[in-house]
Every structure is written in structure tokens, then in C-alpha cells.
Design goal:
GNAT_dom, transferase, alpha+beta, Aminopeptidase, 6 helices, seven-stranded mixed beta sheet, acyltransferase activity, transferring groups other than amino-acyl groups, Diamine N-acetyltransferase
Length: about 170
């Protein structure tokens, strides 16, 4: 049986109690470069988002799960986006909020758990992710988990007045 629990983390559905954590994460300008956000979100808008987070992935074409440690502390989020059941693919995004929680295998476990879910439960053929070329930890993470670098999007993201390339990684369900 598939479990969304690893050795040090588990993935769970979003809860109303996640509002404060979501608010802090979404409104941190340090994260806006990767999320495409250009302005803060109000608590009201995020409350509405949480109220609708229960909707089926086939309806809303996305799924966001909370990454929690085994003491039930929210650490980050992992997302499926651009879910395409016709072509059997989805995008994947992940964020671990606190720098002190990074580089400890949390991202590796979360991506591995979600990849297994995507292939086993949703029956998708492929999953992909986009990583900025200067994000060495994420480049290493996805390469380590068998994602293949399949392309470079030139000058894709502008950050602090300079353009950055974005690397496209893909993993096929064998």
C-alpha cells in the first residue's frame, strides 16, 4: 500500500490551521522569484484558497500538500500543477520554508513520495519541474532522484534586473 510517509516527513492535505504558515511563506519576497508572485496575498484570499484546497485534482488541475516532520510541524509545501490527465503529466514544485530545515533529506523524501504517488495512484507517464540555473541544491536534488535535464529556457525569469535561465527536468514512469 502506498504511504505518503517517509523516515523523517509525511505529506498531508492542507488544513485551515495552515493559514499562518501559508501566509508567511507566500508573503516572503525571498520566495517570489520562484513562485512568480509580485504582490502580497491577504489572509482573506489565503483563507478562500484553503477552503477550496479539498477539491479534486481532476477538477482544479493542481494539488498542494503540506510537508510535515514526524512531530507534526509544517516544514514546507509540495505541489502538483498543470495536471494534464489526457497527456498523463504534471509539474512539480517544492519549497522548504526555513533554511535550517534544508539540505537534510526532507526535499528528497518529499519528492520521492510524491513521485511514487503520481506514478502509482494517478497513473501518470511523466512529471516535470523547472529549476533556476543558480539553484544548486534543487539541481542536485532532482538529478539525484533520476530527473533528466531535457532543456534550458533562456532568459526565462527576471530577478533584480537580470535574466536567469530555467532548467527543465523530466522524469518518465518506466
Amino acid at each position: 500500500m502506498l504511504s505518503l510517509k517517509g523516515k523523517q516527513i509525511y505529506l498531508r492535505a492542507l488544513e485551515p490551521e495552515d493559514l499562518k504558515f501559508l501566509y508567511l511563506l507566500e508573503n516572503d519576497p525571498e520566495n517570489w522569484e520562484i513562485s512568480g508572485t509580485t504582490a502580497p496575498y491577504s489572509k482573506h484570499v489565503l483563507e478562500l484558497y484553503l477552503e477550496n484546497a479539498h477539491k479534486d485534482i481532476y477538477e482544479v488541475k493542481q494539488l498542494r500538500l503540506c510537508i510535515c516532520d514526524l512531530k507534526d510541524r509544517a516544514i514546507g509545501f509540495i505541489d502538483l500543477f498543470d495536471f494534464d490527465p489526457k497527456n498523463l503529466r504534471a509539474g512539480l514544485g517544492i519549497i522548504v520554508r526555513q533554511p535550517g530545515d534544508r539540505n537534510k533529506g526532507i526535499g528528497t523524501e518529499a519528492v520521492a513520495l510524491l513521485t511514487e504517488y503520481v506514478f502509482s495512484v494517478l497513473g501518470l507517464k511523466q512529471i516535470y519541474t523547472n529549476v533556476l540555473e543558480d539553484n544548486e541544491p534543487s539541481l542536485h536534488l532532482f538529478a539525484k532522484l533520476g530527473f533528466e535535464k531535457v532543456g534550458v529556457k533562456k532568459d526565462w525569469i527576471i530577478s533584480n534586473g537580470k535574466f536567469k535561465n530555467e532548467i527543465l527536468f523530466q522524469k518518465l514512469n518506466k
